[in-house]
Structures are given as C-alpha cells and as structure tokens.
From TrEMBL:
Protein name: GDSL esterase/lipase At5g03610-like
SUPFAM superfamilies: SGNH hydrolase
Lineage: superkingdom: Eukaryota
Alphabetically ordered keywords of this record: Hydrolase, Lipid degradation, Lipid metabolism, Signal
InterPro entries, per the entry: GDSL (IPR001087), SGNH_hydro_sf (IPR036514)
Lineage: Eukaryota, Viridiplantae, Streptophyta, Embryophyta, Tracheophyta
Family the UniProt entry places it in: Belongs to the 'GDSL' lipolytic enzyme family.
One BP term from GO: lipid catabolic process
Record field: transmembrane: none
Pfam families, sorted: Lipase_GDSL
Gene Ontology molecular function, alphabetical: hydrolase activity, acting on ester bonds
PANTHER family noted in UniProt: GDSL ESTERASE_LIPASE (PTHR46020:SF32), OSJNBB0059K02.9 PROTEIN (PTHR46020)
Length: 351
C-alpha cells in the first residue's frame, strides 16, 4: 500500500470512529471519571442488539429506526434500546456491534468503549430465530481476547450487560403449542445462564449485570385478545418463577465469588411501572398497545405485500406508546424503563 492510500485508510477509520461515536452517543447521566468503567461488553438478544442481526431481519427495514437514527439501523425499536441507555448511564458511547467491527477493517479505533455481541432473537439455547446463542457470543469475545484485540488491561475496568428477554421461552411455547412443561424448562434455562455468567467473569470482566425477564404476559401477542387491556397472568406466573430462580442463582454465584460481581436488572418491576404510567414518563396510547402493529393476527411490524402495500399500521407519535412492536419497547418506552432502573444501576455498577 503506498503512502497516499495508507493515509486515506487511516483517515477513513478515524472519521468512522468519530461518526460512530456521535451517532450512538446519548446525552445524560454523568459518571465521575475515577469510577467510570472503561469498557462495556454486551451479550444477549434484541433488547441489547444495536446492529448485529442479519440485515434480512425486521430491525433493518422501515419503520424501524425512524426516531433514531432516522432510518433502520439494526435496532428492534423506533430508536435506542436498553443497551444504549446502559452505556449512557456509564458515561460511555454505545460500543460498536461485533458485526460492524468485523466488516469495518478499521480495528482498534472503534474499540474504545468495548463491544456489543448481542443478536436479536437469541437465547441461551438455539431458538426459532436466526442468530448465535449466548454461548457462541461469548466464544466471539474469547477469540478476541486470545487474539489480543482486547487485553487484560482493557478488562480491568470493564463491565458487562447481559440481556435475556425470553426467546428460549417463546420458542418453547411456539414449539409445544402451549406452556406445558415450561416450569421445568425454566430451571434448565437459568442453569445455562449461570454457566454463561460465570464464564464471562472468568474471562476477566469485573462486574456483570443480567436482566430479569419482563412481564411476558403483558407483551402484545398475549394481550391482543383483550384489545390490549389485560395481561395474561398465567404467563406472568411462569416469569415470576424464572426471576425467583434467577435471584437465588445470582446470590449463590456471589457467595462463591470473592468480589460478588453479579447483579440483576429488574425488568419485571420497571416494565410494570412504565405500563401502569407510574413513572415521570407517561404514555397516551393504551400502554399495552404497540405503536407498529400488523394488520393480521401475526403482529409483524414493517411487512409489505408483493405490491409494496403496508401490512401494518403505525401510530402518529411513537413517544405516545410504550411498546414499539409485538415484543419491544419504543425508544420512549426504554427511557421510562431506564428512568426506573437508574438507582439500581448506580448501586451496583458504581460501587
């Protein structure tokens, strides 16, 4: 490569790094520099995915991304998702998606804030959706450590955010046609999740936050029969069992680990608070009704027919709705959840 081409390549990477940071930055919480984590590593599913999912998936088609960044960009929302708000809280820019880094050829300039390995639709096991399960995501991370893309020094000030939204359970219900046998399956899921959390910590990450499951029975596919007025308490009871078991598991992990690095982000409580309009952020739409809703019973947002006609309806203002689509909050919905979580994040991440 001649000098001019090398200079252009370096300049390109430098500009891409700046633009990536500007695009993903979320103004907000200030964290003192002496306790600010240096890097954030993200694992999980669509509640955390900021652009890893295959571009054939819904997150890459209109109207996803209409609020931020103004076009589809791989987030399962009209804008930012929970991982963006966790980064915001830590005073970091959202770390680059693993797939974006692989295709950039720019290397180190994009790694300043860590990396996001989350893929929409995934779980601790294989699901009905495409994408690498959490074990494989951790494999990606481990390979980068072995290749010295990230060093032991990078991990000294690192934290991890792990999202498990329930795709394993959705797969179980879809495959079996009912919730039968779900309770025994929950134990298997939580046990595998514990193995994953221990492995992330064993690789050198100092603090690991893992999400509890949201009130599953309040998701639009389970509330549509009541015109989005009532949650399905049968499914919520199974979620309650998952969250109870997860709490017991995390307590056990912390007893077994010297520095007690694991803690839970209570999405059940924060979702419930937002849905009931109990927080400072209020929603005009019936909170259980999504902004983007398929015209059939399939709930798909963004689908069009062979002539390009929309097979979905879209609310006038996404800020008025807690849910964006059948499973994911809007950007405003995530803001409400984040607002309810800030005290927990401060208690565990910054002490």
């Amino acid at each position: 490569m001649d000098t001019q081409k090398l200079l252009c390549s370096v300049l390109c990477c430098f500009l891409l790094s700046i633009l990536s940071g500007r695009q993903q930055a979320v103004q907000g919480h200030y964290v003192p520099s002496d306790i600010r984590p240096l890097k954030l590593f993200v694992f999980g599913d669509s509640y955390a995915d900021t652009g890893n999912t295959n571009k054939s998936q819904a997150a890459w088609i209109f109207p996803y991304g209409i609020t931020f960044p103004g076009k589809p960009a791989g987030r399962f929302s009209d804008g930012r998702v929970l991982a963006d708000y966790v980064a915001k809280f830590l005073g970091l820019e959202s770390p680059i998606p693993y797939e974006g880094w692989k295709s950039s050829s720019c290397g180190i300039p994009l790694l300043k804030h860590g990396m996001n390995f989350a893929y929409g639709g995934t779980g601790v096991f294989d699901t009905i959706f495409p994408g690498p399960k959490m074990t494989v995501q951790i494999d990606f991370f481990e390979h980068l450590l072995k290749d010295n893309v990230f060093t032991a020094k990078d991990l000294e000030g690192s934290v991890s955010f792990v999202s498990l939204a329930g795709n394993d359970y959705f797969t179980h219900i879809s495959t079996n046609g009912s919730a039968e046998g779900l309770q025994s399956f929950i134990t298997t899921v939580v046990n595998q999740l514990a193995i994953n959390l221990k492995r992330i910590h064993g690789l050198g990450v100092k603090k690991i936050a893992v999400t509890g499951i949201v009130p599953f029975g309040c998701l639009p596919p389970f509330t549509g029969k009541s015109s989005f007025q009532q949650c399905n308490e049968t499914y919520n009871s199974f979620v309650g069992f998952h969250n109870l078991l997860l709490n017991q598991t995390v307590e056990k992990l912390n007893r077994e680990t010297k520095d007690s690095p694991f803690f839970i982000i209570d999405l059940y409580a924060s979702f419930t608070s937002a849905i009931k309009n109990e927080g400072s952020i209020k929603f005009e739409n019936p909170p259980l009704k999504p902004c983007c809703l398929g015209v059939s019973s399939e709930y798909f947002c963004g689908r069009v027919d062979e002539n390009g006609a929309k097979l979905y309806t879209l609310c006038e203002n996404p800020k008025s709705a807690f849910f964006w689509d059948a499973a994911h909050p809007s950007q405003q919905g995530w803001r409400a959840v984040y607002s309810a979580l800030q005290a927990t994040l401060e208690q565990y991440f910054l002490h």
